């Protein structure tokens, strides 16, 4: 109980549950932030998705102190490089002015509104804005410091005292010794430490009553959450997505964080939230540029002039972004309408390969398809299996599924039949390595042992540095060999999954369900080829905090090989095939399913469980593997030009500990195409499109389409928005320059000496070496090849879709398979627009 | 292809390629010199050559690493020029045989390092860290210049080789003043409290700069103390002060390392500690041990820093890897052994570092022997440990060939035993706390956690 | 007032709360339930139904965040009343419905309040 008299009258206080409701709502200001070991792309503006896009960007910018757009100079770079068509820009500008009439209207003799606007877009003088990391203000630094100490999961050897009390109470117990708190909060702060309630909800209620005069409590709390979006996001991850046993020893909820903020606010220690300076004095420049005198214009013209002169960077950026989107859709949609009635090749393919929908799969698929009669498919990279894997030799449970789902099956990694000996040896090696690293960690920390440890291991460290710098591929070879041996000796076992406490493995009906889902969702015909490869994917990066961001997003930021192996095993199981046949998916006897993993950094494809392939299929497998290698080589060469390096150097970079950008990841992602492969196979999509296979003819009631749009497309939208916002403000929505990042607590990075846990992607993942955006910030364009009515029904039945398409977070184009006509979904309350080649529909 | 990037300006590209090559070439030259000198038994400045080799090796590794790591930097040309300048200035002061050359190299290296800490000039925090470093270095540089001025006034020479003999016979008051000033200069570079703040807030530097700084630059202090050993040996009072400060830094730095939740400042804490130990060893007269520590720690710390991107990942539990009972037993035996050595008069200046090394090996070996893993694995680990011990012994041997194995002993044996006991006592206390999952006392914890924090700035807005 | 019984089986009067909310908002309700100190609750995923804004589908197969979920909790009248106050805050901005009713349970200790 609180011994002191409450500082505020109790009758005006909110109850605990009211506070809990408000805190839970305020928490939605930020999305969850996953630890980097399983990095998940999220939309930093997820909390604003109920608003129209433009409005959301504006509100979030105010709240987070962020930019609303790439700086104008950055956009111009993209126009100069042809990444944005100048004609599309003009069209977008015309659209902004309300159409051709509004654009052509004269503002001064011989000067049209469009001239003014284009001048502002392309010619107005701009100082070169440098992207600069912000520094935490003292109040934020104080809270960030304690969050870092509290949430550390690996680095400190001596944990923060009193963690078991929870974040808020632990900080209360330590703040009186903290000189930084004293200088921040003063004497009032010291008094508060003694008098504030120990329960965070009650503390928030008091804080709101004392400091919240005239403010809506929810807005008040939301603005506090937004001050440290990284730590707030980490708290959301812990409460909503972490395995409980990993966080119980140090409990913390959003209420703890907010109670700390309100403690500072009550002590009058809050700083002014950082704003973004906008320069909007373009009137003079425009007048000078067009040699006109604004004072001599009539009232209507002045109004028009001022409307254009006062556009801020956000508004100009929105025009550029529209132009970027049109550049893509003008190039892509006509090709897609043209190919809408393309015919299927009927003869049986040499082999079929199912890839992840990831944008990096498409160029590889194109290369492979050119090497033989190979049919490829796009399916979510977790292959529809909501599973978690318990790795052999301990280690955390890996959630190998999109974060939209919770695991339904816990699978154990165990020795492959007949490889028990090798598996045992691997286990011994791993435990030895773990022991050695534990010993090293303990020895370098002890006040009696730290010095000799440095002296004894120094020379070895020197050799290791030499090897990793001068011969990185050689140095990395051992690791690769170990990994390969591990993959050969251990597999995710379907049959011994029940041994763990969580428990349920796959029942036969589960297996049949997951196996047939592949066919239901992708429209793949059951008369499969003799070899069907399910290819998951992962990246390879050394010494890179963002390595998991290169892995498969559908597998929860892990490589997807395990999921592929599980599904392939199911599809080869005679009982499963029998069950599938009963459901109308009779797979030919001579079809063999194989799992593989595409390394997106090196473009190598590893095929798993080769020795189980029947003798009769071996020759075909050899050919296929040779062609996979050829396709990989071609794709690597293609990617090398994008990275401005040699193809061979990509292999070195994948193994080099200093490589800051092993690959471009999903940078450039812009479209999500739902339809059969023969529709898109003739088009070079430049690695910018997610491809989900779909056949409208096999989906009469729209179930498959619903699933595709509400799950894989949602994940694609998160990725798209992460790249978009990380690019437009790399400091606030992204994680800044990689070279000054500092890994914190094993969970994330901070910049330099500390501050907020960084969200989003680093600068190097989005910008080229000369600072131009490699990723063009633009919203996802979803194109579906299906009858309009069916798409409309699916969208209207699912709130999330109505919101995405209606509020402009994703643009939807539907191409009718019979007429080949394209129709664009119109945003709620949008005017029918001109200057676009696509007709509009409304819902 | 429209997506392809544009290449950087040609000039920058050349610099980026030339600097690593030049540093590797420099390393080859110095290595050649060393080999030649060793084979012909020619007169050579071994201390300068060895440390130059270390600095050039680290510089070359860092430069090669940076050619990938810094590829997207806004000013790669400036970066590489400064990096090369930094290595060159260090090599200059290491090899300079006169006070003038030493001072020039010393001051230049400080300025260049500060500039690299503030390499991201648009970032207020980086500029603040740069200023903090500069302030500290300027204080140290003033001390160095004052010391050199005094030396020149009292001996009339700028040749380092002859200064020592001049001082051995000189007035003690001058020796004390010069030694005190040299110590201040050394401590500022070694980031020994009260001069540790600059290093602890230097995380604004790009990772490769940190690697070079923690591995190459901080050693300058140790070099200075060894170079001017004859002068400092003439001032025992200063040596006592240095032993005390070094010891405190060694323990204090361990504390910083233990509480830090971020990898880079945790490593910085470790550097403070290791440099404290090195200063202490130096001042005890154990020059060979100190030199070997400089060389090995440089490699060790550079590796840890360059590898700092690998620190992502959460640990399941934090059980002590060194068995606490083993540490207690080993500590006790070590003390007994030390006392026997002291009593029998075989304790030299290197007793403390030597016994701590043996204790480390013994505690690790004991833990391995009783570890709950397969016998084969235990034997493999034990084998690895033996290799490390051999490497360490060889290293100390090499260092002994380079510098006088021991200077004048400073501490009488019983006091050396006390010092040893202090290290071991802290170790036992620490391991027991870890074993019981106990935190540090709250007050101490907060103090350690706050070290290196930047003073409050209102730099939230962006230029 | 005497407690109701079934034959010789004594029953205890408590209050029940039922909440139907969009699956994507389920965490909001869970946070609230935890803060209220209610002894436990039942969550029914994948609820479908007809409402103001038309028919609500059940969840789609690869996304747990679509469709509706329903929470059922039983507790002392005070706890349930508190909970309802908190929910009222949620429903200022989120869609959802709440039902309150009297219930009788056999083991009252089962529904005891958890002290925060």
Task: Describe the protein.
The complex is a heterotrimer of chains A (843), B (463) and C (116). Chain A has 843 residues and is α/β, with parallel strands linked by helices. Helices cover 45% and strands 11% of the residues of chain A. Chain B folds into two domains: 12-235, no CATH class; 324-451, no CATH class. Helices cover 75% and strands 0% of the residues of chain B. Chain B contains 19 helices and no strands. Chain B has helices at residues 10-40, 46-69, 76-95, 99-117, 124-155, 160-168, 172-190, 197-200, 207-217, 220-227, 229-233, 236-259, 263-284, 287-306, 324-344, 351-369, 375-402, 413-435, 442-450. Chain C has one domain (11-111): Alpha-Beta Plaits (2-Layer Sandwich), CATH 3.30.70.120. Chain C has helices at 26-36, 77-90; strands at residues 5-6, 9-10, 12-22, 41-47, 49-51, 54-56, 68-75, 96-105. Chain C is elongated, with a radius of gyration of 16 Å. The two termini of chain C are 31 Å apart. The chains are: A alpha/beta (843), B mainly alpha (463), C alpha+beta (116). Chains A and B meet through helix 7, helix 9, helix 18, helix 19 and helix 24 of A and helix 2, helix 5, helix 12, helix 13 and helix 14 of B.
Cα-to-Cα separation, first versus last residue of chain B: 35 Å
* Mean pLDDT across all amino acids of chain C: 84
Stretches of chain B where pLDDT is under 50 for at least 5 consecutive residues are 1-8, 458-463
What characteristic shape of chain C results from the CA principal axes?
A: elongated
Number of domains of chain C: 1
CA-based gyration radius of chain B: 23 Å
Supply the CATH class of chain C: Alpha Beta
CATH architecture annotation name of chain C: 2-Layer Sandwich
In a nutshell, what does this entry contain?
Chain A has 843 residues and is α/β, with parallel strands linked by helices. Chain B folds into 2 domains: 12-235, no CATH class; 324-451, no CATH class. In chain B, helix 15 packs antiparallel against helix 18 (413-435).
Key features?
heterotrimer; A: 843 residues; alpha/beta; five-stranded mixed beta sheet; globular; B: 463 residues; mainly alpha; 2 domains; 19 helices; disordered N terminus; disordered C terminus
């Amino acid at each position: 109980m609180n011994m002191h008299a409450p500082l505020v009258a109790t009758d005006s206080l909110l109850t605990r549950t009211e506070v809990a409701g408000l805190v839970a709502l305020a928490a939605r200001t930020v999305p969850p932030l996953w630890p980097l070991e399983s990095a998940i792309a999220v939309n930093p503006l997820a909390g604003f998705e109920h608003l129209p896009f433009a409005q959301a960007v504006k509100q979030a910018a105010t709240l987070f102190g962020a930019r609303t757009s790439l700086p104008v100079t950055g956009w111009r770079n993209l126009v100069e490089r042809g990444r944005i068509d100048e004609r599309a820009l003009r069209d977008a500008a015309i659209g902004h002015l309300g159409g051709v009439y509004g654009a052509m209207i004269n503002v001064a003799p011989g000067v049209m509104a469009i001239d003014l606007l284009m001048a502002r877009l392309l010619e107005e003088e701009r100082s070169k804005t440098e992207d600069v990391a912000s520094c935490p203000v003292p109040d934020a630094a104080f809270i960030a410091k304690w969050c870092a100490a509290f949430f550390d999961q690996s680095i400190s050897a001596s944990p923060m005292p009193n963690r078991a009390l929870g974040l808020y109470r632990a900080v209360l117990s330590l703040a009186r010794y903290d000189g930084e708190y004293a200088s921040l909060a003063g004497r009032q702060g010291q008094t508060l430490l003694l008098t504030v309630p120990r329960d965070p909800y009650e503390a928030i209620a008091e804080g709101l009553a004392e400091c919240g005069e005239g403010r809506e409590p929810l807005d008040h709390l939301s603005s506090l959450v937004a001050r440290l979006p990284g730590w707030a996001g980490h708290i959301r991850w812990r409460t909503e997505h972490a395995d409980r046993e990993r966080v119980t020893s140090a409990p913390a909820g959003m209420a703890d964080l907010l109670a700390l903020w309100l403690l500072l606010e009550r002590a009058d220690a809050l700083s002014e939230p950082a704003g973004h300076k906008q320069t909007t004095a373009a009137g003079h420049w425009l007048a000078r540029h067009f040699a006109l005198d604004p004072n001599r214009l009539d009232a209507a013209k002045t109004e028009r002039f001022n409307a254009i002169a006062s556009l801020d960077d956000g508004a100009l950026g929105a025009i550029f972004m529209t132009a970027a989107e049109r550049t893509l859709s003008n190039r892509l949609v006509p090709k897609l309408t043209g190919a809408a009635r393309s015919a299927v090749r009927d003869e049986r393919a040499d082999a079929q390969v199912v890839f992840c929908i990831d944008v990096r799969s498409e160029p590889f698929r194109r290369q492979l398809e050119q090497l033989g009669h190979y049919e490829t498919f796009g399916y979510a990279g977790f292959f529809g299996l909501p599973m978690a894997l318990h790795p052999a030799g301990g280690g955390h449970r890996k959630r190998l599924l999109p974060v939209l789902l919770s695991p339904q099956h816990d699978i154990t990694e165990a020795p492959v039949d007949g490889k028990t000996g090798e598996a045992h040896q691997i286990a011994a090696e791993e435990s030895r390595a773990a022991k050695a690293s534990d010993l090293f960690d303990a020895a370098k920390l002890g006040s009696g042992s730290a010095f000799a440890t440095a002296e004894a291991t120094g020379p070895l460290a020197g050799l290791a540095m030499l090897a990793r710098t001068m011969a990185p591929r050689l140095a990395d070879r051992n690791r690769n060999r170990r990994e390969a041996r591990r993959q050969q000796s251990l597999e995710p076992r379907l049959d011994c999954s029940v041994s763990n406490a969580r428990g349920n493995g796959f029942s036969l009906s589960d297996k049949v369900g997951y196996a047939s889902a592949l066919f239901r969702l992708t429209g793949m015909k059951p008369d499969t080829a003799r070899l069907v490869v399910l290819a998951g994917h992962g990246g390879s990066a050394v010494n890179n905090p963002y390595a998991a961001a290169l892995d498969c997003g559908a597998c929860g930021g892990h490589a997807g090989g395990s999921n592929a192996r599980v599904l392939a095993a199911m599809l080869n199981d005679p009982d499963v095939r029998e069950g599938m046949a009963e459901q109308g998916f009779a797979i030919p006897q001579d079809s063999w399913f194989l799992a593989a993993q595409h390394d997106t950094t090196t473009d190598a494809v590893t095929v798993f469980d080769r020795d189980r392939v029947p003798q009769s299929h071996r020759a075909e497998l050899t050919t296929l593997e040779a062609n996979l290698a050829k396709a990989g080589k071609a794709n690597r060469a293609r990617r090398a030009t994008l990275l401005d390096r040699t193809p061979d150097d990509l292999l070195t970079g994948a193994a080099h500990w200093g490589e800051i950008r092993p690959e471009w990841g999903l940078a450039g992602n812009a479209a999500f195409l739902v339809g059969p492969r023969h529709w898109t196979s003739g088009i070079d999509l430049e690695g910018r499109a997610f491809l989900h296979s779909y056949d409208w003819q096999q989906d009469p009631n729209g179930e498959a389409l619903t699933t595709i749009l509400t799950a894989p497309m949602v994940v694609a939208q998160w990725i798209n928005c992460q790249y978009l916002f990380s690019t437009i403000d790399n400091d606030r929505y992204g994680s800044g320059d990689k070279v000054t990042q500092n890994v914190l607590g094993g969970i994330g990075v901070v910049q330099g000496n500390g501050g907020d846990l960084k969200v989003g992607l680093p600068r190097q993942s989005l910008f080229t070496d000369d600072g131009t955006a490699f990723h063009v910030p633009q919203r996802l364009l979803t194109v579906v090849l299906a009858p309009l009515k069916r798409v409309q029904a699916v969208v209207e039945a699912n709130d999330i879709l109505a919101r995405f398409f209606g509020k402009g977070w994703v643009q939807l184009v539907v191409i009718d398979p019979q007429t080949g006509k394209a129709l664009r979904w119109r945003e709620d309350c949008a005017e029918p627009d001109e200057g676009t080649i696509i007709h509009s529909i409304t819902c | 292809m429209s997506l392809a990037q544009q290449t950087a300006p040609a000039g920058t590209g050349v610099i980026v390629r030339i600097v690593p090559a030049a540093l590797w070439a420099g390393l080859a030259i110095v290595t050649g010199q060393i080999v030649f000198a060793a084979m012909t038994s020619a007169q050579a400045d071994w201390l300068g050559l060895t440390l130059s080799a270390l600095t050039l090796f680290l510089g070359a590794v860092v430069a090669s690493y940076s050619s990938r790591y810094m590829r997207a930097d806004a000013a790669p040309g400036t970066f590489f020029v400064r990096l090369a300048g930094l290595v060159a200035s260090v090599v200059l002061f290491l090899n300079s045989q006169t006070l003038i050359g030493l001072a020039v190299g010393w001051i230049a290296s400080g300025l260049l390092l500060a500039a690299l800490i503030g390499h991201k000039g648009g970032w207020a925090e980086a500029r603040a860290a740069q200023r903090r470093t500069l302030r500290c270095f300027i204080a140290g540089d003033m001390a160095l210049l004052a010391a050199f001025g005094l030396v020149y006034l009292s001996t009339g020479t700028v040749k380092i080789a002859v200064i020592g003999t001049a001082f051995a016979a000189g007035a003690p008051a001058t020796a004390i003043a010069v030694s005190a000033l040299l110590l201040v200069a050394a401590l500022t570079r070694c980031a020994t409290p009260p001069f540790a703040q600059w290093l602890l807030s230097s995380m604004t530097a790009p990772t490769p700069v940190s690697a070079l700084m923690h591995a190459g630059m901080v050693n300058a202090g140790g070099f200075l103390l060894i170079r001017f050993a004859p002068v400092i040996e003439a001032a025992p009072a200063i040596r006592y002060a240095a032993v005390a400060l070094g010891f405190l830094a060694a323990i204090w730095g361990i504390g910083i390392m233990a509480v830090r939740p971020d990898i880079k400042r945790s490593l910085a804490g470790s550097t403070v500690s290791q440099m404290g130990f090195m200063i202490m060893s130096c001042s005890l007269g154990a020059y060979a041990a100190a030199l070997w520590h400089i060389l090995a720690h440089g490699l060790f710390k550079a590796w840890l820093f360059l590898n700092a991107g690998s620190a992502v990942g959460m640990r399941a539990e934090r059980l002590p890897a060194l068995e606490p009972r083993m540490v207690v037993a080993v500590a006790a035996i070590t003390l007994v052994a030390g006392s026997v050595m002291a009593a029998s008069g075989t304790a030299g200046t290197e007793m403390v570092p030597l016994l701590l090394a043996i204790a480390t090996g013994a505690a690790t070996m004991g833990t391995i022997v009783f570890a709950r893993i397969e016998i084969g694995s235990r034997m493999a680990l034990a084998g690895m440990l033996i290799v490390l011990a051999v490497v360490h012994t060889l290293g100390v041997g090499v260092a002994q060939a380079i510098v006088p194995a021991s200077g004048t002993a400073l501490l009488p044996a019983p006091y050396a035993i006390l010092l040893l006991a202090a290290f071991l006592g802290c170790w036992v206390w620490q391991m027991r706390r870890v074993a019981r999952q106990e935190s540090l006392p709250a007050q101490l914890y907060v103090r350690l956690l706050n070290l290196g924090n930047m003073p409050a700035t209102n730099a939230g807005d962006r230029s | 007032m005497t407690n109701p019984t079934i034959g010789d089986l004594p029953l205890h009067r408590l209050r029940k709360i039922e909440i139907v909310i969009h699956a994507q908002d389920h965490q909001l309700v869970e946070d609230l339930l935890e803060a209220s100190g209610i002894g436990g609750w039942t969550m029914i995923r994948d609820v479908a139904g007809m409402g103001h804004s038309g028919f609500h589908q059940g969840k789609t197969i690869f996304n747990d965040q679509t469709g509706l979920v329903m929470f059922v909790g039983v507790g002392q009248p005070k706890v349930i009343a508190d909970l309802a106050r908190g929910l009222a805050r949620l429903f200022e901005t989120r869609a959802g419905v709440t039902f309150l009713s009297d219930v009788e349970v056999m083991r009252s200790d089962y529904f005891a309040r958890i002290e925060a």
